[in-house]
Specification:
By secondary structure, the protein is mainly alpha-helical. It contains seven helices and two strands. It has a two-stranded antiparallel sheet with strand order 1-2. Helix 1 (8-23) packs antiparallel against helix 5 (90-103).
Length: 184
């Protein structure tokens, strides 16, 4: 399965929806979608919830599987993006949601292990002399937000968000995701 099913117009449609949600301040943590008739979009939602048009809550047994079926974004990537999104401070969520979706290239098969390895290698080089990042052995395809340790203080999400490393981590994540070679 390829991202966006190889259709740039599908990505453009979702990105436009995400930009609208960001503009109306309706990208939120804690739930997939919640009806809000006062908004132009008609609902508030998380990163995953805002990718999809408004749907009845009971209609989707698994939101991540729906995103994979409709957009070709692998379930594992949707879960990791969702996990990263939910651990961010609320002030960073909307930008993270839009930039993450924007970073997913059209028409590629994303390999979780190579994406994780790239991020792990980058983090290792950045943290040299401070500590050693670690990946969760039970989740080798994880994108590391929960698995990188810095200055012995615990997971990245516990760092002060103004920390320079955190911003660099996110920028490297977007870059790594957007540069996935075709067919990898």
């Amino acid at each position: 399965m390829t991202t966006w099913h190889g259709k740039s117009e599908l990505k453009a449609e979702v990105l436009a929806r995400m930009v609208l949600h960001r503009a109306e301040d309706s990208i939120v943590q804690g739930f997939y979608q919640k009806i809000d008739p006062e908004l132009a979009s008609g609902y508030r939602g998380c990163l995953i919830g805002c990718t999809l048009p408004r749907v009845a809550r009971w209609a989707l047994p698994d939101w991540h599987e729906e995103v994979e079926e409709v957009y070709g974004i692998p379930v594992w990537l949707g879960l990791q993006l969702d996990e990263m999104f939910e651990t961010l401070p609320p002030s960073m969520c909307a930008d993270f949601a839009v930039k993450s979706i924007e970073s997913i290239p059209v028409g590629v098969t994303i390999n979780g292990e190579s994406l994780s390895a790239s991020m792990f290698n980058w983090a290792s080089s950045q943290l040299e002399g401070h500590c050693t990042p670690s990946l969760d052995e039970d989740d080798p395809s994880g994108l590391m937000l929960d698995y990188v340790y810095y200055r012995g203080s615990g997971p990245v999400e516990k760092l002060a968000m103004e920390d320079e490393f955190f911003d660099e981590f996110l920028e490297q994540f977007y870059k790594t995701l957007s540069e996935v070679p075709v067919g990898s």
